[in-house]
From TrEMBL:
The keyword Membrane applies. Keywords: Membrane, Transferase, Transmembrane, Transmembrane helix. GO terms for molecular function: transferase activity. This is Phosphoglycerol transferase MdoB-like AlkP superfamily enzyme. The lineage of its organism: Bacteria, Pseudomonadati, Bacteroidota, Sphingobacteriia, Sphingobacteriales. The chain crosses the membrane at residues 24-42, 54-74, 86-103, 110-129, 135-152.
Length: 168
């Protein structure tokens, strides 16, 4: 499991570096990350646990993308391609890859916290650099936060791939 964790951290650091430096990430990083996270989760909770959580987290992501699309559809009164200037494919693929690891409750918490951190980053960056880059390295920020999450999980012996502690 240590080698698997190391490989996951390496892919996450690669995503972070490339997104911050170039605002582009090699596409192979996302399926590789999903595969590694899926293997880790299958070893921990089995295929049934992975499949069940994927249905919930993937459904949540799909609903979020649909709500975002509806927002822009209503705002501009025409169909809008979300990946055309609003949200990068890397951002979507990263959120999809993380579905392979996090439980539904932890996925929603990670999603919300990472968006708050990303907005804070954007506001601070724009106030410091007036004519700088207008894009936000969302996948890079989320990958960095996921690195911290995995390290905290290992050091504090937490469990972010099951919701057993939250259920009544």
């Amino acid at each position: 499991m240590m080698i698997l964790t190391g490989a996951i951290l390496l892919v996450l650091c690669t995503i972070t570096y490339h997104d911050f430096m170039y605002r582009a990430v090699y596409w192979i990083c996302f399926p590789l990350l999903a595969l590694l996270l899926g293997i880790y989760k299958i070893k921990a909770v089995g295929f049934a646990g992975l499949f069940t959580d994927m249905m919930f987290t993937g459904g949540f992501l799909l609903v979020q993308l649909l709500v975002l699309w509806l927002y822009f559809y209503i705002k501009y009164r025409k169909s809008v391609n979300l990946t055309d200037g609003y949200l990068g494919w890397g951002d979507i693929l990263f959120l999809l890859a993380v579905c392979f690891y996090l439980s539904p409750v932890n996925y929603i918490m990670f999603y919300v916290v990472s968006l708050i951190v990303s907005i804070s980053y954007a506001l601070i960056a724009r106030s410091l650099v007036k004519n700088g880059e207008q894009t936000i390295p969302l996948a890079g920020i989320q990958a960095l936060l996921f690195v911290f999450l995995l390290i905290a999980e290992k050091l504090m012996q937490l469990n972010f791939f099951q919701d057993t502690g939250y259920l009544l």
